[in-house]
Amino acid sequence: MGDCKMEKVKEKEVAAAPKKKKEVLSGADILIRALLAEDVEYVFGYPGGVVIPIFDKLYSAPRPKVVLTRHEQGAQHMADGYARSSGKVGVCLVTSGPGATNLVTGIATSFMDSVPVVCLTGQVATAVIGNDAFQEVDITGITRPITKHNYLVRDTADLARTIKEAFYIAGTGRPGPVLVDLPKDVLISQVEFDYPDKVDIPGYKPTGEGHIQQIKKVAEVMAAARRPVFYVGGGCITANAAGELTDLARTAKIPVTTTLLGLGAFPENDPLSLGMLGMHGTWYANMAVNECDLLIAVGARFDDRVTGKLDDFAPKAEVIHLDVDPASISKNIKVDYPVVGDCRKILQRLSPLAREADTADWLKLIGHWKQTHPLKYQKSDRIKPQYVCEAIRKVCGEKAIITTDVGQHQMWAALHCGFFGPRTMITSGGLGTMGYGFPAALGAALANPDKKVVAVVGDGGLQMNMQEFATAVGQRLNVIVALFNNGFLGMVRQWQELFFGKRYSHTCLEYTNPDFVKLVEAFGAVGLRVDRHDEVVPVLEKAMSIKNLPVMIDFHIDRHENVFPMIPPGQMATDIIE
Amino acid sequence: MRHTISLLVENKFGVYSRIAGLFSGKGFNMDSICVGETDNPDYSRMTIVTTGDDMVIEQIIKQLRKIIDVIKVTDLTHEDHVNREMALIKLNCTSTTRNSIVQIVDIFRAKIVDISPKTLTVEVTGSDKKVQAIVNMLQPFGIREIARTGTVALKREYSGKSPDWSSGEKRAFV
């Protein structure tokens, strides 16, 4: 401990030595240098009083490029969509007070789904912090429970190290948002710029590659199982472990079900795929989990939308859980064989030990279930949302990235689009944030200029962040917005129909919805309207042919379509309604 | 069950609120929390007394470890440890009751640190049980005010018996 003091003395000596003199820069310049050092391509931002010094520097800096949004929430969702679709850390930059508070929903969205985002917020000068200054808010206090970590930088000398730590913390271990609050005077004061090569945070050592003895044990248990199931969550995609998982499942002949965020971790056209499980999961995925003797959770956290009634979840199974976050293990369900570490590294070490399990009878039974209880919907002249999902995948291709908002359309997309590769499904799972899908699509489009991005949204959610059409047009982003317009807040309406005696309290938007086509045209985007089943594919093809502009397709879907299968809340898999 | 958890944390502003916020946000019990700087001013030692079943305590420890500013978390409950709490107790006192009070104070090896014609203030140090015991004994005289620090604790060093590695409680430290 005495050494620490010694080091400090040494640092001072080094600073005083004339030989080692470094460039003296303002806080704003240091911030931009730090972003460049972190290889940041885009900053999603919105200016305001205290961050003018930063925007002033960005004005002449070739990189990072600034994406000017029309609302700070849009900036956070875009940074989030950028991060999820690319695996890189997203960055957003906003002003103090209302700019910072407008991020909150987006930060919570990123936090719940473990998305690496660095949020830079302006703050009033350190001298007036606590004085209720103009546009002052205690944003580190507000975001403490919804960030992985946050900082209030009080001294320009700490700025470079703080930014380095923020990126490191956001992107490693179980990723998450990190907020850095930047007082105005810290941005203006000048110090010598020195960007550290590495970080040393005594309280943060993200876990490694899993305990080998435990991994051996897991391999034995897997080989001995007769009815095993992989239950794969977003953590598998975050760890870039989808390839390893797919290989292992195929080698071991173990069927795979994924969570909403796990969609794409295992190709759904593989015979071993069970699709999504949970409240709106497939009949056979839920039944497989109900009947399995071994549940192998990979980067999943046993969320209540997956488990339903906890006591009846996977009642016959022993549970293996691979996860980077020790706190996820045995949080909701008692785990028999935990392995803590990076999912990819664990799977890499597990694969050579794995043997083909004797699952022939089990796979036969699952095959029978798939035939007798397939996903289904009624064909009709009216536009069925499930059909639109299938058509989107058919027209836009297997590699197209699909983002969604939250509600019925989200579940239809999850069930009927089909997902064949990681980072092709971008959706707010944990927080369930309406208004997320469209801005997230813009972030994904910027991160993936070679890929088609389709935002599947509802008429309720789209209106929550519609202003970002201005951003999309400004950036010439060629995203397709597939609006599933039923004039209802559909998922709430479905619950009202099923559980509240069809009392549709405040869920009908039909008479007050805008003319979406005119509205997006006013923004300078292309708007198309579809009312008939046979127009769905042609209009999607038309949308695909339009370049350099966002296209919104207003699908007037069958208004009373509901999402099935459904396990009513708090019930068990066998209570599923098909 | 009651657990005493010792934390080594970075001595920065906001650490206390991160930890207190974790307990309130996740609905964990907190019986007491006590903080002070260590010999190295970069670090503070925090002692938390909490109650919960094994699964809850395991979650508390894991969640505490997730906080970036928390360096080390130790559950002292099943380890040999020393724990102490201090209390100041101000109670009514007349010339007729003074002797009885002084007797009680002596028995508990407590001290009288303030006196006035109508009151006495007693300082007592010990385990939380001892503090509770003297509070119970002094209650009949009429306690006016009481201030308790909450428990501080440290692990005892090697006391002659061999450590029991097979103890299930080690699980929490893996």
Search tags:
heterodimer, A: 578 residues, alpha/beta, Rossmann fold, 3 domains, six-stranded parallel β-sheet, 24 helices, 20 strands, 38% helix, globular, disordered N terminus, B: 174 residues, alpha+beta, Alpha-Beta Plaits, five-stranded antiparallel β-sheet, four-stranded antiparallel β-sheet, 9 strands, 26% helix, disordered C terminus
Residues in helices of chain A, as a percent range: 25-40%
Largest interface: A-B, 21 and 24 residues
Instruction: Kindly give the count of domains of chain B.
Output: 2
Beta-strand level of the residues of chain A, as a percent range? 15-25%
Q: What portion of residues of chain B belong to β-strands? A: 35-45%
CATH class call of the largest domain in chain A = Alpha Beta
Tell me about the largest β-sheet of chain B.
5 strands, antiparallel
What does this protein structure show overall?
The complex is a heterodimer of chains A (578) and B (174). In chain A, helix 4 (72-86) packs parallel to helix 6, helix 12 runs parallel beside helix 15 and helix 17 packs across helix 18. The relative contact order of chain A is 0.10. The longest helix of chain A is centred in the N-terminal third of the chain and has 15 residues, at 2-16. In chain A, 38% of the residues lie in helices and 16% in strands. Chain A is built from 24 helices and 20 strands. Chain A has 578 residues and is of the alpha/beta class. Chain A has three domains: 23-192, Thiamin diphosphate (ThDP)-binding fold, Pyr/PP domains (Rossmann fold), CATH 3.40.50.970; 212-372, Rossmann fold (3-Layer(aba) Sandwich); 385-556, Thiamin diphosphate (ThDP)-binding fold, Pyr/PP domains (Rossmann fold, 3-Layer(aba) Sandwich). Chain B is of the alpha+beta class. Chain B has two domains: 2-79, Alpha-Beta Plaits (2-Layer Sandwich); 84-153, Alpha-Beta Plaits. In chain B, strands 5, 6, 7, 8 and 9 form a five-stranded antiparallel sheet that branches. Mean pLDDT of chain B is 91; it is low at 167-174. Chains A and B meet through loops of A and helix 1 and helix 2 of B.
